């Protein structure tokens, strides 16, 4: 690509005749230096300069007025007053008024200052020389000599015992800090493997807080349940519901493809963990015609008619199923805890 | 006044104060070097100021918010003025954020300024970083400042994420849950890290208080230090400027700090603050009352993080669900791989200056901001990087793309999976072509002048467009840029006939160097001879 | 792509499932619904059924079969109940125009009287959920906050926090709830149209449905207050991020261009 061949017909014809011969100095590519300063209107016309001055002052005055407006709005508008303002909708009068007045008060200070700088301060461009960042060899030599002398005087290199024990001490002292972090939290132990579900625990409807009966759960419906004995007011509710939340659907038994799923269901009523096995979002976008359930966070899709296996998305394994049945009073109950950890996978999960 | 009589003997009050300060701080020496320091004028040189000012705004408004916010996860029953939540259980963190939004006069405004400024801060840093990248302003001596800037962007992301999580609303809680799931995927120590970070099982009662100290103290403290260091280095290095008449690698041309930049930069702070305040007046952000308090069994569709985490969200959404179970242990590749790609992609742009300087072998200082077209390979790499980033942003919002453009979410996910790899390649090739084309156009302009738009009829009937020659300043601007000669391997045998050993690394360097500066990878700028030959009209009518 | 993904499952499979689901819903409903409410005016009722049958044979029979037994193009309507008809026809979803991932909401082409006649006819094919009365769906006096909690547990995962709608698999979607009448909200929960699961009275009693309706009206109605200003579609961080880039950073860059630009020079005279 060194030299481009330029076809003759592309050359500007008659350039020299139209504009006179182009002045080709010795080196037309040479730096001509900073162009001469051209004055602005304000530089040569005092009237224009005074107009600019007034404009700047007006802006500063507008800013003052806006600040007065801010204080007035703060006093006048009650905090709960809402007004309709097109096109913003029903908005808080106070927020709207405070925001605009504060914004304008600030903006006009800035606009005034910039207008002042642009029209009235000198706009003559100047050049600053740059100097190399690196030091000169003399400075460097001086520093190296100083350092060598300092190092020698300290005996750091010579007295190895001091050096090595110092390194040892410095290396060890942060351990205290690390040890102190131990009480940030408990050890994992079996915490991630167990939930509140246990044999005989009733399935409590999250909506009504009543135990569910099989006949309550229609085919195509979606219900969420928590274990009997848990209440929203319990201090550990958040931690427990994060593991125990249950999603209940009813599928015609003949549509259930997975044998174990059918076995663990009650007449087609299946209970799956509501916590996604990817990173733990509460998964519950149930499509009742396809029996697919989608996670709203990362779109993992599970087939509830086939053991809740993953059919799309980033989840790595199926949703755990809770084995359920009916007790002698006709209520749905758990037949035990989940037989695998619910929620996201982790190293010890196996 | 009595002092009037003394004015001739005594210096003015201001000067006396300055004398006092100089005796203790040495301010005259400092002012001598900096008071009339020159800054070049270009809008893209102000992007960093947008970041600096929004950072200051965030600190100011953040201090105000701490006076009302309670970083506690104790459950309380809501009794505030927002009816659709009355009687609901929520953490004190959520409750106090509701209080700020509905009962504290101006509290909502400050909250919104804080959050809008945070989004703009991160967006500003992204654009600022790209400006520095595409103009090669990261070259020696500014590599360290580039790293400081990158660290600010990186820490800004996490400061933003911790702040976004503080109100403990349903959306941010979902984000924290995602983070906890990601931590669990770490081999061997994942469960321990999670237990220690959350003080037990998720969500526990500790993370808001812990995030709070990181959000208001630890991270902004580090960032403030980095910002100061970043600014000091800008002063020490002096700003880069674009090539032009009188603007060389040895000087900086512009206006002095006092008074022009004092007014312009100082004024710009107020302009930035004003614009963000107006945005906070007219547009709602993070309306936590509509989201509701966090409960680990509840969720909403369209759950996304703030934009700067959208890239990570995209990675995690489009990753296939790979999981390996061996010897009783689980390797959660579906989460770990995105978790590793995320910092790797960011690191790719962070270390680029060092890679480029290794390839060129150039040890000189560079103070000229290059035009992106004059560094086609770098520009192409940058555009490819942005393409990968943007594709992942699309992936992070795939559900909203699906509903708003009537597409299948599954198809979008597949599109992102493929184009995360293919997109950057295409972008690289296309960008490089465009850059070379622009270089050719510059060359044409230099050699043949500017198209004037005037059509002239020649005596024999031919129509031609009159080309106006460029001014010398313009000729200089278009030809002043440096062009590297492509590197070459030394001859296989040296002058004594002894076989020369060339390391594999050096061979790679030369190969990459040819990719940057070889024959097809840059357009040789016009030479004086070419110009003179054409301009003298030699061989033409 | 959309078409391809929509056809990944055989259309008949969905039809069969729907048929079974609807039949079971209807059957269960029939088992528990309080009997004997519709004894009022039998002659008027049979007249409505007659009229409804005529409308049905013109507008519906081609897909759902002459007797509502269903065809390959449309599910059986036996046991879907009048509430289903009132929802599907009353929101313009039926009659459907074209096959696709999902039948969208359209302009309603029947009058309410005609819809009632159609509903009466379909209800006569087999018992199912009955169109609710005005007092059943009236949210006055309902507990909005409880409705919010129920909404976040049962609805928000598909319809978004404030009912702006959201994406489902393969081009399907949960529609926006903006401007949907209380009656249609109620019927949707009751019957579970298309892929939406149903929330029958056995698991979500009438009072809770009212709470939910009250909540939807409070947060996505004409009078909904967005104190902070523009709600940006109620879509959360994606629209906020776009706004911050376009209007926030955009405005600031425009200002920066003004600050950095050179002031106009005086013209040479």
From TrEMBL, chain A:
PROSITE patterns: RIESKE. Residues 238-333 form the Rieske domain. The chain crosses the membrane at residues 55-77, 97-117, 161-181. It is found in: Cell membrane. Coiled coil: none annotated. It is a multi-pass membrane protein. It comes from the Bacteria. Keywords: 2Fe-2S, Cell membrane, Disulfide bond, Electron transport, Iron, Iron-sulfur, Membrane, Metal-binding, Oxidoreductase, Respiratory chain, Transmembrane, Transmembrane helix, Transport. PANTHER family: CYTOCHROME B-C1 COMPLEX SUBUNIT RIESKE, MITOCHONDRIAL. Belongs to the Rieske iron-sulfur protein family. This is Cytochrome bc1 complex Rieske iron-sulfur subunit. It comes from Streptomyces omiyaensis.
UniProtKB/TrEMBL annotation, chain B:
It catalyses: a quinol + 2 Fe(III)-[cytochrome c](out) = a quinone + 2 Fe(II)-[cytochrome c](out) + 2 H(+)(out). InterPro entries: Cyt_b/b6_N, Cytb/b6-like_sf, Di-haem_cyt_TM. The keyword Transmembrane applies. Residues 17-243 form the Cytochrome b/b6 N-terminal region profile domain. Keywords: Membrane, Transmembrane, Transmembrane helix. The chain crosses the membrane at residues 43-65, 115-134, 146-166, 178-199, 211-236, 257-285, 331-355, 375-394, 414-431. It is an enzyme of class 7 (translocase). Pfam families: Cytochrom_B_N_2 (PF13631). Its EC number is 7.1.1.8. It comes from the Bacteria. Its cofactor is heme. PANTHER family: CYTOCHROME B. This is Cytochrome bc1 complex cytochrome b subunit.
UniProtKB/TrEMBL annotation, chain C:
It comes from Streptomyces omiyaensis. Its EC number is 7.1.1.8. The keyword Repeat applies. InterPro entries: bc1_cytC-su, Cyt_c-like_dom, Cyt_c-like_dom_sf, Cytochrome_c_Oxidase_Subunit. The chain crosses the membrane at residues 242-261. Residues 47-126, 142-220 form the Cytochrome c domain. It is an enzyme of class 7 (translocase). This is Cytochrome bc1 complex cytochrome c subunit. The lineage of its organism: Bacteria, Bacillati, Actinomycetota, Actinomycetes, Kitasatosporales.
